[in-house]
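Both lines are given unchanged directly below:

***
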Amino acid sequence: MTSLVERYGPFLVALFATLLIYYFKTDLVSAAAEKKVDFANLYSAVFNWSSIQTGFVFGIFGYVAGKSGGFIEAIKSTPEMSLFLTYTKRAIYLGFALTFFCIFLTVMSFNIGVGAPWKFHIFAAFSFLSLWGFLAFLRVAYIFGDILRVKDRTRVPG
C-alpha cells in the first residue's frame, strides 16, 4: 500500500504553503507595491526550472514506458507501476502548465502590488502550482531512483 505522504504529500504541502501566502497577503502586497519585493525573477526562474523539469520527467516516462526486459518489464503490470506512471504524467502536466503560466506572468510584468486585488489570487495560484509541480517532480525523481537501484539479473548461459 502506498503511503499517504507519498500519494498526497506534494498537493497538501503546496496547499499549506498557499494558505500561508494568504495569511501574509497584506505584507506581500504592501512589499510589492513599495517595490521592496519584485517577483519578476521568480517567474523567470520557475519558467526555466519547469521547462527543464518537464523534459526530464518526459524522458523518465519514455524510458519506463519503452523499456523491455529486466526489472522494469517485470513490474510494468503492477498497481504500483501504474501509480508511478500517474505521478509521472501529473508532473509532466504540471510542468507544461507552469511553463505557459510563467510566460504569461513574465511577459505581462505581473505585479501583485499594482492594480486589481484579483492579481494576488493569480499569484497564489502560481505559487500553489509551482510548489506542487516541484514536489511532484521530486516524487517522480525519487521513485525513479529507487527503480534504477534494482539491478537486472544477469544470466550466464550454460
User: Anything to note?
Assistant: Residues 28 and 105 are 17 Å apart (CA to CA).
